[in-house]
UniProtKB/TrEMBL annotation:
Homotrimer. One of its GO terms (molecular function) is metal ion binding. It comes from the Eukaryota. The gene is LOC110213887. Belongs to the fucolectin family. Acts as a defensive agent. Recognizes blood group fucosylated oligosaccharides including A, B, H and Lewis B-type antigens. Does not recognize Lewis A antigen and has low affinity for monovalent haptens. Gene3D superfamilies: Galactose-binding domain-like (2.60.120.260). The keyword NAD does not apply. Keywords: Calcium, Disulfide bond, Lectin, Metal-binding. It holds the Pfam family F5_F8_type_C_2. One of its GO terms (biological process) is regulation of complement activation, lectin pathway. This is Pentraxin fusion protein-like. The keyword Disulfide bond applies. It comes from Phascolarctos cinereus (Koala).
Length: 156
């Protein structure tokens, strides 16, 4: 799939949206990927460059100052909210979080690191959308295939 905006949302429900890291792997369209070698102890992760790093993110609301949208693209993979590493919206209907990749990319994989602290039950089923629209948090963009979404728990 190709596009500019990656959206994480919880459709059809009033929930908190909270997770600790989003990593997006792909290449600038229409060029070939810039691939970095990965360490042997990191073979479970997608191969490539996390193109979400250093980009602009925003979310529907912010529950607590520690839960700002940029926490999900800061390279901090700690899954404990109180280690200043997770994003967190208020209890909203269909909350969303978006990263603007600033250019059109062909995306192969998206990895989400959910919370692993005492609020792990707050991790609802995420829906990932990817495309060129930023309106309404990118919720009109096509869904990203679940076979291309990797959710890792307890990486600490």
């Amino acid at each position: 799939m190709n596009g500019r905006y990656v959206t994480v949302t919880i459709p059809g429900r009033k929930k908190f949206l909270t997770f600790c890291e989003v990593q997006v792997f792909g290449k600038l369209a229409p060029f070939l990927p810039h691939v970095l070698p990965r360490p042997l102890n990191d073979l479970h992760r997608p191969l490539g460059v996390n193109i979400a790093l250093g980009k602009i993110s925003y979310q529907y609301s912010t529950f607590h100052p520690l839960g700002s949208s940029d926490k999900a693209i800061d390279r901090n993979e700690a899954s404990d909210f109180y280690k200043n590493s997770c994003t967190h919206t208020s209890d909203d209907f269909e909350p969303w979080w978006v990263v603007d990749l600033t250019s059109k990319f062909i995306v192969d994989n998206i990895m989400i690191i959910p919370r692993g602290d005492s609020c792990t039950g707050m991790t609802a089923k995420y829906e990932i959308r990817f495309g060129d629209s930023k309106e309404n948090g990118g919720k009109s963009n096509p869904s990203f295939s679940y076979s291309e979404i990797l959710v890792f728990h307890d990486l600490q």
